[in-house]
Amino acid sequence: MDQEGMIHLKATGKGLDDSDLAVHQDEIINTVVKYVQDSMRKELGFKEVYIPANSTPEAPVKANVFVSRNYESCKKLLIFVAVSRGLYPGLWSRGLVLHAGVKSGSMLEYFRKAIDEGYGIIVANPNKNVIVMRDGKQRLQIPGSSSPEEHMDSLWDSYVARSAARRVYFLGYSYGGVLIKYLLQSRGDQLMRRNGAIALIESSHRIEDGDSQSVKSILAHRTMYWESNDQLFQTKLDGDAPHRTGC
């Protein structure tokens, strides 16, 4: 990995091409995950907690979640939510890591900025829903995290609700926006009293007829939505994005 976070093959020093990705994709991702999560622990002081909340590190059926050292005592708490197949806590997406590098594809720069600004942090892991046992045949659902939605409910009940934070903020990417909107509904009364603001990037959520007025209000007045384009930063979006997202 170079100073810009771009990944190179160790044997040749060259950047990745399509043939490299076809052969080495999982190996590359596993190496990046180790680097990112080691940086989270050693440089930034994160620790791992679990769902179910009473799980030990040795428990075979659990989902891991990363929290900053001050998440229980901070005044403002920021929750990161990113979802896609095969994703691990600390990454935005596998594709970004492979094609744009670790600096763009990981959350590390966001963590550093948030910590500098005094936020506590929780990094959700809604992708972790089942455990494949060693025989490769048996798949066990994780209690409290058997679906992305159940994971978010458990995350709130076990960790966010117990935090001293007066304001809870969210940063969601892709399907993470759907889960944040879900949490606005499932834990609405608790969340509304503590909601700071929501930032969504390339979110796939939609406003629907059955959404409560309070959810629509938060999306309209306390949420910012960004998507990649060729315009200057903060240029107002054209098309159906404002109508679709309610932001």
Automatic annotation (TrEMBL):
GO terms for biological process: regulatory ncRNA-mediated heterochromatin formation. InterPro entries: Arb2, Arb2_dom. Residues 29-229 form the Arb2 domain. This is AGC/AKT protein kinase. It comes from Phytophthora palmivora. It comes from the Eukaryota. GO terms for cellular component: nucleus. Keywords: Kinase, Transferase. GO terms for molecular function: kinase activity; siRNA binding.
